[in-house]
Structures are given as structure tokens and as C-alpha cells.
Amino acid sequence: MKKIYALLLILLVVAGCNKEKIYKDNLNGLWEVYKYILNNTDKTTQFQTTHPNYTIAFTSDGKFTETQSFIDTTIVNGTYTFEDNDEKIVLQNEYYTYYIDTLYDTAMIAYYDTLELPHTLTRKYTIFNLTKDHVQLRNDTSQLYMDKPKTP
What we know:
Blueprint: H1 2-27, E1 29-38, E2 41-42, H2 44-50, E3 55-58, E4 63-69, E5 73-83, E6 88-104, E7 110-128, E8 134-138, E9 142-147
Antiparallel strand pairs: 1-2, 1-3, 1-9, 3-4, 4-5, 5-6, 6-7, 7-8, 8-9
């Protein structure tokens, strides 16, 4: 009987590890938002206007890159992990705030120094309908429906 429990425990551990690997394999690649729901209201047009040409790319080694571009291009790099039995994806990235600090010497000549303060942004989403070409990410207020870009 003890051998059966040990075997079941090993199978559960192996199955759990395989689920994360399958999720990473399916997420791997470039994704675009084709539908955005905010507070149960379709806000796709607003999302596309606010985040023009938005894409997110996942790698199988736990990294992501978000890009949006209109006149300038904004790129955010970070890492992702899974939690709650691989039902949620956690995106983390650092960002910085800058403050100008004024310093004076004895001759009362102003010198300016910039202080850089790092912060970590953490976003959690529940994963639904993950396949190699479709995923839905949901948090308390929004839902992102994403697919991989069609190649011509």
C-alpha cells in the first residue's frame, strides 16, 4: 500500500512539472490582443488606441517582452512564473522613477543630480483556453484575448 502512495505522489509531481512545460511551450512566441474586456464591457477599440501595435512575446525560459509603438516605441522586459497549480501567470518587471535633487556648493552655484528609484510591477492573470495560437488572460477587472499574428 505504501508503494502505491509513493508511486501516486511521484506521478503527481511529474504531471505538475509537465503542465508548466506545456504552458511554457504553448505561450512561447509573439501574441497580439484581438479583444479586450474591461469591467464586463468590450473596450477593444480603446485598448488599441491607448496601446497602439501592442504585442507581448514569451520565451520558454520564463521571460517576456511587451512592445507598443506609434510615434515612439515602448519596450518592457520582464519575467513570468506560474502559481496556484499553474492556473495563474505572474508577470514581473522593473521600472524606475526619477527625481531631480538640487545640491549647492559654497559659492551657491546650483548642481542638479538625478535620483533613480527602482520599483517592481507585478501583474497576475488567470489563464484560460491556452493553446499554441490562443490564450485568454483574466484578472479582477479585465480580460485579454490574444492570438498569434497570422503570417502572410
